[in-house]
Amino acid sequence: MTDKNTRPDAPVTTLPRRRFINTAALSGLGLGLAACNQKPEAAPPPAAAASQSPAPAAAHANAASAAHLKPGELDTYYGLWSGGHTGDMRVLGLPSGREILRIPCFVPDALVGWGHTNESKKIMGTRADGSLRFTVGDTHHTHASYKDGNYDGRYAWINDKINSRIARIRLDYFVCDKITQLPNVQGFHGIFPDKRDPVDPKINYTTRVFCGAEFAIPLPNTGTEDASKYRSMFSCVDAETMELRWQVLIDGNCDLCATSYDGKLAAVNQYNTEMGAKFEDMMSAERDACLFFHVARIEEAVKAGRFKTIGSSKVPVVDGTREANKDPKTALTAYVSTPKNPHGVNASPDQKYFICAGKLSPTATVIELAKVLDWFDGKLDKPDAAIVAEVEIGLGPLHTAFDGRGNAYTTLFLDSQIVKWNLEKAIAFHKGDKTAKYVIDRLDVHFQPGHINGSQSETVAADGKYLAVGCKFSKDRFLPVGPLHPENEQIIDMSGEKMVLLGDHPVRGEPHDFIIFKRELVKPKQVYALDDFANAVKDPKESGVTRNGKKVLVKMTSQAPAFSLREFKVKKGDEVTLILTNLDKVEDLTHGFAIPNHNVNFIVNPQETASVTFTAGDPGVYWCYCTHFCHALHLEMRTRMIVEA
Questions:
Q1: Residue 334 belongs to what H/E stretch?
Q2: pLDDT over threshold 60, residue 5
């Protein structure tokens, strides 16, 4: 690793790359660090890190070749990525890092007609006039459904932080099928499904999805400036119906989420336990927390009627504040303290621990879940007794992945590194064994890494093959394209003792979290079932135009290389609903349908039906054409919409 900046137009600096980056980053944090009153005891030095010498060339070449697939060779893993400000979910193949698909969720997408078809508008939500309620989104976190502690290929979920929405993705068709807006919250951020039912031990699959709200607001939201009236919520969504089951009123906010493998516990890390509305107020406490939720007890409280509702919402809200949960034997929540401003909470695949990274503290906090349950059972005197290690790992720790061999991999934002460390050795070091060398390896990444995940990382089947890391800055890694740089996603081989960087991939801002799982866990369907669509036009003979006053229904089919209607007539100002069914049964034979000057462009996959509603414009001839190449006569695949006065 060299400190030399290799881009020819890069400014010359007298500081080495890492020192320059850290100096800039630390100066930005200066106010926060000065405002923080925490005065921790001097942390013991971590075990000596492995040397920074590069991996042997042969090992690097072998690892790198795995990421560069031969033509026609398929990736061995799927990756589901947040899309950031595009408001969608990205699908990648790993280890190549190739983007295969974008699944639109919260934001209109002209490629497939999401937000334009009647079916997608119904999912996204509309105003009284039929326009979309929201046209922007900000996706951060995505996770998938479980069975027996591993992904089961049914669903994935993704959040929209701006408008507090959660979307569900069907993994048989890789499409969004439901969106729910959470009441009483803003800044919905962390998301995680349960791994099995917390009440019924016979149900070994995901039944709930937990959602954390980052921003505190008045409840109900009255617009007051008095921050003492601001509160945060933790929410539970039913995995099947996508309806809210309950919410928990808490002290502090929610950042990210994690769940235990037995289904009993959910947790969020909290970085603003003060509930400050101003920066300096957010930094006044000495420590923050990892907040645990006893799911079965919460549902018992709801069932017993020990809840309230807020405003017009009918969702049951239980009290999870510190004051109301002092008795561990009846408590719904447990607040385990962490160093100031933790960022991220992750569940180890051995089912024993949650890891909170320190962010402003150079430490990782290891919390033993059995001990948290012991506190709820009255067997521990305080929740903090569940902390089994708090060890120094580097500057700016954020998120953690696992290899299934007892090792954790944590991103170090300020060090621009990934650190590999061993959980059991860290626990031994924390207990006093100063010979326990818990830090195993460090790898430079480029630059300022945030989220990290590994293949099958947060499942019982964690296989320790590949890591992916999202770097917030790309700086000199790609050709300059003006002020807005791409971000840099990097793929890493973690199968050996040393981590090996395999490749860089530029990406539009600002993606966040992701999961990586074996391809055999999903069984995608590549042709729709015609009968799944109630409005399907099953035979070209059913095509035609029906008028009811100013409302016109046009029914049509597509089958390469022709639409079933050669033309159709409407009048200016008509409200036209067009239903199109793709009767082709051949895999990958998608048709598009576009109407010039009418804001209509959508697709129908094989055996799929979709519809649009629009107002016919000025009189004239409008050639409707297929937008997806489908046949040698693709350019001839047209029909005419004739608008009469």
A1: strand 333-339
A2: no
